[in-house]
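Handout, section B. The chain below has 332 residues.
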Amino acid sequence: MKIDICVSDPMPTPNSSQPETVANGALAMALQKALPFSQAAQSDGTRRVYAEAFAQWAAWCDLHHTSALPAAPEAVAAYLASLARAGKSVSAINVALSAIQSHHRACGHALDRKHHAIADIVAGIARTCERPRERAAALDMGSLRRLIASLSGDDLRSLRDRALILIAFFAALRRSEIASLDLTGRSPIALSDRGLVLHLTSTKASRRTETVALPRRSDELCPVAALETYLANAALTSGPLFRAISKAGRPLERRLDPTSVRHILAQRLSMAGLETARYSPHSLRAGFITAAAAANVPEHLIQRTSRHKSVDVLRSYIRAADAFDDNAARFV
């Protein structure tokens, strides 16, 4: 299987003059320095997903004796149809198409996803294969209390995980945002007498810095108190906030990654006797939104914390919480 690698050749041709050689060398150096900014246009997670999706596309092309790059729209359409027949979700099929298009664009090729061959297949898949989106269950307040109660140890891992879970829940964080938090860095935190402020930079939904404030609570679910206890025991003053911990119980320089957040939550849920298959890190974010809605918190205040750009998306959580309580059938 052959996967094309796209590299621009900055070297001059044999007939180039000396001034052009100097100019091209300078341009090559400038382009090299610009590369990190270009790569930052997509998150590490997106690049990994796209790379895997494109590799699968290339393997299919190799099997069907067609070019993966540049690709014929009809070949892309046939591939998307094969994914649909294999039972892939509409979301996964759209990711595959985006990965193919992104790789084409990076290599200077045009792939028009509005081409009739592709557009018709995508529309047909959406019409025939769309199914209800399966979200992880929201972690309710009772389960949260049970989970935190199980983290009663004073070892550093327990203190870290307690702070991580409470901050993720009450700040309605995505797992990538949890992993990105810093004491000093691109997504720094700030502690005060009133609470905790998170400065979230380049999140999944926004490229600008977003701010979330967490007030102190007077119960065992206070994320600020949990964080202060963790920091005091870890003796951390700079760098990543949530880090890997050595077998000896000491914090390492390496920050947790989003996959580690998932594993930590699954382990802690299991230890608390909660059904791990029902939950994911998204359950913390969904749990806060659902609990706030059940407590009749105004939508605009929930949205300020959750940072949903679309009120409709936010309301999809709220409707799930109110599906039986606020139901017209109850009044007929």
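Note. The radius of gyration is 24 Å. Compare this with the example in section A.
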